[in-house]
Amino acid sequence: MKVSNLMKSLAVLDHNVPSIVGQIRNYGVSAEWAEHPGGEYIEVLTDKTIESFLKANESVLVMFYAPWCRHCKNSKPEFARAASIMQTEVPSGKLAVIDCTLYPAIYEKYGVAGYPTIKYYRFGKLIGEYHHKRQAMDFVFFMKRSPTSKGDL
Question: Which terminus of the chain has fewer CB atoms gathered within 10 Å of its CB, N or C?
Fold first, then answer.
């Protein structure tokens, strides 16, 4: 292959990679979550998908996290396990995550004060911050209750 043809091919690939990666993030399971049983049931959000996902779903618990955070690392397997259990126990509830290190504007826009910050939304409206235990069944029981106001949290 000629060098010029190779350079053109690389330029096309380089141009399309961000789009392809974005599609994988939007519709696939990130490798970071796939390693945990139940991770395939977690919605991996981006700065482009978070608003529409929150508005489209009745009940969503979102973990705003940073991959390097020790508390986030400890919460991940339990959050993933809860997502799996919820498939049968709370099918209308969704667990979602967003890596704030990839989308720094999210940190400020959604009032993230530290990692992990876990917030509960109903049809796109913030009900409040989750301040309970972080074991799988704690997340499941919380989502079963499906709080409708801050006082219900």
Answer: N
pLDDT of 46-83, one tens digit each?
999 999 999 999 999 999 999 999 999 999 999 999 99
pTM above 0.90, yes or no: no
Distance of CA 32 to the CA centre of its chain: 11
**Given 3-state DSSP classes, what are the helix, strand and coil percentages for the chain, each rounded to the nearest 5?**
50, 20, 30
**Per residue in 30-61, is it b (16+ CB within 10 Å) or e — as a string?**
beebeebebbebbbbbeeebbeebbeebebbb
- CATH code of residue 140: 3.40.30.10
The structural domain count of the chain equals 1
CB 101 within 8 A of CB 57: no
3 domain residue, yes or no: no
Inside any domain, residue 16: no
